[in-house]
Model the fold of this input.
Amino acid sequence: MDTYEVDVCVVGGGPGGMTLALLLARSGIRVAVVERSRTFERDYRGEILQPGAMTLLDELGILGPARARGGYPLGRFQLIEHGRVLMNIDYAQLPKPFDFLLSIPQRHILEELLAACEKEATFTYLPGRSVSTLLTEGKRVTGVTAGSGENQVTVRASWVVAADGRYSKVRRLAGIEFDRMDVFEHDVLWFKIRQPGRSSHDVRVVRANGNPVLIFDSYPERVQIGWTLPHGRYREIAQQGFDAVKRQILPAVPEYADAIEEQITGIGDLSLLDVFGGYAREWVRDGLVLIGDCAHTHAPIGAQGINLAIQDAVIVHPMLVRAVRAGLTSASALEEYPRVRRPDIDRVMTLQIRQAKAMLSSSGRLGTAIRPVVAKLLAYTPLYAKILQQIAYGRPVRVATEYFQ
Ligand SMILES: Cc1cc2nc3c(=O)[nH]c(=O)nc-3n(C[C@H](O)[C@H](O)[C@H](O)COP(=O)(O)OP(=O)(O)OC[C@H]3O[C@@H](n4cnc5c(N)ncnc54)[C@H](O)[C@@H]3O)c2cc1C
Done:
């Protein structure tokens, strides 16, 4: 079994983990990333970047090359009911250069992050290895073991960063409770259809016949469609068989009905997203820090997950560098992170719950009758500009380049 000795072991090579690894490696910190997958192929993951994430990736020199691999700018986030545009969040109102959303395969971002990391002498990448054990000394986390057979590795580190996503294994191994919040009414059944020539330049929530659907262009030459269904009811719906599921989807997206008939031919073409929010009860322990989806999980509405994971990395970076340089491994060295970050995350969670209610819900106060009125009025209030700013950027965050070597 190979053994690595590093300052920081990042578990999970998603947007949060890879961004943090790059920041640390550029700061001269010895960092290893342990990643379960062998490739960065990730269908049905976050594909939409907000201006906040774009700004940070641009500062790191990642955005340009990632975009050169392919991606689509999207101008507006719209709610359309029976053909009428009820809400039109227009990103063109934001300052340039990031006055749009970017639909881009995660692979394009992750491969560029990895390429940049690999230019740093202090970086080690350990793909194709799933973390199975946390090493501890007393209460302090001191490393991980990952992989199996000839592929097995031990990584010893001053700090382990859990960036292994919404179902985090590290969180479970550490015994940190996760408070799951089933506050969203819908799950999402995703699928993609080939659509040469782009169909629209917006992200749309379309309410017509049947359940609301989310629709956006997905690179290359695809349209990604998310059919919403009552939370927790997929099994029941799927038991009626694939044709029954398809019969329910078709009326909701008549403009794509022919393409769906032709291209979506089995249950394997559909991918269910169990939509929930939630928080890990602790984000920092001695030798351990949780970031991204592992610390706080979000619904897809408003496309916030990647933004937040990358921001977490940028916020934790200077704190971790200071701790490593000072030889500190106790939780108190990073106590500032949950203190400054939790209020940001609470704000996003609240906004997403409101967005989901306003755009997707079929009942309640923002039901069918008053939704058009509220949506129209909102567009003329100062609150609208504030909401756009919050969705696009959240709290302004900057890269601590002064820590780079
Ligand atoms: C269907 C879907 C659509 C979404 N749409 C959007 C969107 O449009 N925009 C947006 O911003 N967000 C979206 N999200 C959320 C977004 O994908 C996540 O918030 C974001 O990827 C979180 O980044 P992360 O780095 O924290 O975790 P992840 O991206 O989940 O990365 C975790 C990494 O850890 C690895 N891993 C897991 N377990 C182990 C282990 N035991 N050992 C080693 N490695 C491990 C995984 O392979 C993965 O690479 C969507 C999510 C889903 C599921």
Notes: The domain at 186-230+233-273 is CATH 3.30.9 (D-Amino Acid Oxidase; Chain A, domain 2). DSSP finds twelve helices and 21 strands in the chain. The first strand starts at residue 2 and ends at 11. The CA atoms of residues 51 and 97 lie 9 Å apart.
